[in-house]
Specification:
Blueprint (H helix, E strand, L loop, with lengths): L18 H7 L4 E5 L5 E4 L2 E4 L6 H12 L4 E3 H8 L5 H19 L5 E4 L2 E4 L4 E4 H15 L2 H9 L16 H17 L3 H7 L4 H13 L3 H19 L5 H11 L9 H17 L3 H18 L2 H18 L2 H15 L4 H16 L4 H19 L2 H17 L4 H19 L1 H17 L3 H15 L5 H13 L4 H14 L11 H13 L3 H15 L6 H16 L4 H17 L3 H13 L2
Parallel strand pairs: 1-7
Antiparallel strand pairs: 1-2, 2-3, 4-6, 5-6
């Protein structure tokens, strides 16, 4: 049955000659909209896919109204979402034009109506969406605690909400909510395999699969499942499995079978327990477990497990205040007995060495460690120890503002020896420090080339989560603000899927905050500064507290704080840098403070 004809005025005060054509074309009162996994509209039996919307904003208006309660929004909400900052009059004109284009595509005279300050989607008609169908079924199944109902609801989830609008803020929260609801019904329906595919870090799902594999006697599959979980948690969240999961894995390893668990299987179980002890602050037990894994990894030549055990040993020893003694001991033992594994020990402790440089007396302490490494390397005739000694001494001298010729010589030797085979990570770090030295000497082109070369080398290492933020931080401080903003965007994209190291990200976060403050992006600046301030609390004094003060001064200045307030903050930063033996940074802050007086 055809609907009654509608007047050519569509509730927005405009006259449209196409009204008769709309009345002739549409003969069904039902409108169904797909939003999950894509966007399409069915008007009766007529199908409209996303490609038919030539005006993107017309499609966006329909999407927004389809998601809205009762499929309507106030004009102000539409204008703010689609044309933020527009004058009210111009915003209203934009709404009318967009509604007109949407009606043309829908072929409905009353597809979008403007009435009493509201923008409405097909009022008076039946409007349905796959989002409504899914959420209704999901909530009902979860309330009833029905596994079958949850499985039925999961079948209605066609994919993430509006994937072509992935970066649109107006639907981001709803997309996250629907994904969370989908995972809830997967869990409620005990669809563990699908839940793991959708969310690789969902530990409960992995654990239930492990239980089933254990009950079935499939030890090989259970071992693979545990390793998949452990890897996902480590790479995506920077955490380790929970005690219940580790205990279940121990049961898997003790199962009878034709093949005994490998040393790698045992090492991974021990590492998991070591991280459990670390989270519980049981440092002695964590250290004992890490040492046991290290011995096992050395005997079985397991570089990955050795690296993880060394990292845990580094964390524990730093917390206990013994890292300066522990690291050279295990590194020199390795270069003497297992030189092929020594680079993995350095990779695991790179963050600790950078952390040590930023202690209150960091440059002096690391210089002492470097000289110890150089003496031992000469006695052992170890290229690896010599390479690391030159790198650490060069880094400490660079940050302490010492003679640039001696700094360059140390870093050049470190880069050459590391490139020759000592460590790819050491090579990347040496090249990056050389680029920072070039920037100090105003050799801008050389610095740019060095930073890019360090990035290329870092891609070959196993620790990009440490190296990339460190390198990008150096790049930002070497560029004008407009170029620096582009580098910040590049860095964010490059590290999007990494759980970057907090201490190694400090230089980047502080520099990014200052650049954003100077370019008027104060909200962004505040976000970077908040992260830097949080991480700075890991140190008891030292240069990063001074760096946070300097970045705070830049933000205060951007917000129009009095010059006296900004100058006082800069003087405070300068004093902090000087106390941490960073004279170059102190001089920069003092000069900036003086310029405001």
């Amino acid at each position: 049955m055809r609907r009654p004809r509608f007047p050519a005025s569509c509730g927005d005060g405009e006259f449209y000659p196409e009204a008769d054509r709309y009345n002739e074309e549409v003969s069904d009162d039902q409108l169904h909209i797909r939003l999950l996994g894509g966007f399409s509209v069915n008007v009766g039996d007529r199908f409209i896919d996303e490609g038919q919307w030539r005006l993107r904003r017309a499609a966006q208006l329909v999407k927004m109204l389809a998601l809205a309660p009762r499929h309507q929004l106030s004009r102000e909400m539409v204008i703010e979402a689609m044309w933020p900052g527009a004058e009210p009059g111009q915003g209203m004109i934009n709404v009318r034009k967009t509604a007109f284009h949407a009606r043309r595509v829908l072929g409905m005279q009353d597809g979008i109506m403007l009435d009493d300050g509201m923008v409405k989607l097909a009022p008076g008609h039946t409007v349905g969406t796959d989002v409504d169908a899914f959420t209704t079924a999901a909530h009902q199944a979860l309330i009833e605690d029905s596994a079958e109902g949850c499985r039925d609801a999961a079948a209605l989830y066609g994919g993430d909400l509006l994937p072509s609008d992935l970066y649109a803020q107006w639907c981001a929260a709803e997309r996250d909510h629907l994904r969370s609801l989908f995972r809830d019904v997967l869990a409620g329906g005990q669809m563990w395999g699908r839940l793991v595919r959708d969310e690789p870090t969902h530990e409960l799902a992995h654990r239930e699969i492990l239980r089933a594999q254990l009950a079935a006697g499939d030890r090989a599959a259970a071992i693979r499942q545990f390793e998949q979980l452990r890897t996902s948690l480590r790479e995506e969240l920077g955490v380790s499995p929970e005690p219940e999961t580790v205990a279940l894995y121990e049961q898997v390893l003790s199962m009878d079978g034709r093949e005994s668990p490998t040393p790698a299987d045992r090492a991974r179980a021990l590492l998991a327990w070591g991280m459990v002890h670390w989270r519980r602050a049981d440092l002695d037990e964590a250290a004992r477990t890490a040492d046991e894994v290290r011995a096992l990894a050395i005997d079985a030549q397991l570089p990955r497990e050795l690296s993880e055990a060394s990292e845990l040993m580094g964390l524990v020893s730093y917390a206990q205040g013994t890292w300066q003694a522990m690291f050279p001991r295990i590194f020199l033992e390795s270069v003497t007995h297992t030189p092929a594994l020594a680079p993995f020990i350095f990779d695991a402790n790179m963050c600790m060495s950078e952390f040590a440089l930023c202690e209150r007396t960091g440059t002096a302490d690391v210089d002492k460690l470097a000289r110890e490494m150089l003496r031992a390397g000469a006695g052992l005739e170890s290229t690896q120890a010599q390479a690391l000694g030159h790198l650490l001494r060069g880094e400490a001298a660079l940050l302490a503002g010492k003679d640039v010729d001696h700094v360059r010589q140390d870093l050049l030797v470190a880069a050459r020896l590391h490139e020759a085979g000592a460590s790819v990570t050491g090579w990347a770090l040496a090249v990056e420090r050389l680029a920072q030295l070039d920037a100090v000497e105003q050799r801008r082109r050389d610095a740019d080339h060095g930073h890019r070369e360090a990035l290329r080398i870092a891609e070959r290492t196993s620790v990009p989560e440490h190296l990339l933020p460190c390198i990008y931080g150096g790049m930002i401080s070497n560029e004008d603000d407009d170029v620096a903003l582009q580098i910040i965007a590049e860095a964010e994209a490059a590290t999007e899927h990494l759980t970057v190291c907090d201490p190694c990200s400090m230089g980047f976060r502080v520099s990014a905050s200052m650049v954003c403050s100077r370019t008027g992006e104060t909200d962004r600046a505040r976000g970077y500064l908040a992260e830097a301030s949080r991480v700075a609390e890991m140190w008891n004094g030292g240069p990063w507290h001074a760096a946070v003060d300097e970045a705070s001064a830049a933000l205060e200045q951007a917000h129009g704080a009095p010059a006296t307030v900004v100058s006082e903050r800069l003087q405070q930063a300068g004093a902090g840098f000087l106390a941490a033996n960073r004279p170059r940074d102190a001089a920069r802050c003092r000069a900036a403070a003086a310029a405001l007086q």
